[in-house]
Amino acid sequence: MFYVSFFMTVAVITSYFPLYFQSKGFSTIQIGLLYSVGPMIGIASNLFWGVMSDRFRTVKKVLVLILIGQLTMAFLVFRSDAFGLLMLLMGAFFFFQTPMTSLSDSLSLLTASRTGKSYASFRVWGSIGFAFAALVFGQLLRSYGAGLTVVLVLGTIFCSLALSLFLKDAREAGVKKPDFSGLMPIISSRPFVAFMLTVLVLSVAHRMNDGFLALFLQRLGADASIVGNSWMASALSEIPVFFLLSKYGHKLKELPLLAVCAAMYALRFLLMSQVENPQWVIVIQLMHSVSFGIFLFTCIRYIQSVVPDQFRASGQALFAITWSGLAGLLSGLLGGWLFNNWSPHAMYGAASALALLGMLGFLVLHAKTRDSSLEAEMQRGER
């Protein structure tokens, strides 16, 4: 229920915030700036809250605290019309909002490890909540206007806060506090840094679609219901992929699987760069299943395999900083510039090129990893 409620909020922020700000009279560049301040703040906030969670050995209490802050800041955001003040308030809102995904995933991973369940069996409910909100909220906004966004955001955050009180921490209070000096050799190693840089390249492409899909559809003549349907299609398409990966994903190597999802991203955004009919966007969004569905699950599994449980929240925070913070900042600036100075289609063409670069990166990493494994086996054989 918590995942359903939380991702309903994500659906509103991702799908309908741009339309709300546009209804308030802000330009595309201003909307891009409002979205870029979030990832910029998120770089620090993800790391801060992740370290706090690991240091005090609690995810639940941190979630409750940031949801209270998020609800307060959201209320203030909707009370402001001045762009300068709104930038500050959106920065404060994202300080509390951006760590939600990494902390929720940390709690799910720790719970899955304790109970023997899979991460995907928890995360799939987020997709269900997102799909429901994208469909139903899109219809409501079409009927009642962008002003209803205020009620939807505040309502879903309040529900998440209420549900968070019933969550259970997956860590024992007696567990020794982690020594963070043990984390540094892992995250500073060359393979890990190369992996995160490749994730960043692919994430920039993904975040361009997240940030500008609604405006792209509006440019094509679509209304709010088509925006909602396109996001619903992408969210629903994740569900079977999460179930399949939870059952069979452990049998596949992470890096080749990520190369496949990057190739699907490249094809998906290439098609978006050519489309003129908004109805076709809904069909193309179904490719979200093999692109983002594989990407999210496999990246988390890879990080889980190299980062110990005592650093779980910090490890997830580093991933969130990369794919949400840095990528969100770069995609907001680059995507906004391409959208305005060239065209939305040119923006998607650039996203397709970045996805191809990401595919090559994962293939090179896989080749180097395989060569290192073969060399290690040969050395063991000689001994």
Automatic annotation (TrEMBL):
Domain of life: Bacteria
UniProt-listed SUPFAM superfamilies: MFS general substrate transporter (SSF103473)
Alphabetical keyword list: Cell inner membrane, Cell membrane, Membrane, Transmembrane, Transmembrane helix, Transport
Subcellular location as annotated: Cell inner membrane
Membrane topology of this protein: Multi-pass membrane protein
One Gene Ontology cellular component: plasma membrane
Domain Major facilitator superfamily associated positions: 2-348
GO MF annotations in UniProt: lactose binding; lactose:proton symporter activity
Membrane-spanning residues: 5-23, 29-50, 85-110, 122-141, 147-167, 187-206, 257-275, 281-303, 315-339, 345-365
Name under which the protein is recorded: Major facilitator superfamily protein
Native species: Paenibacillus mucilaginosus 3016
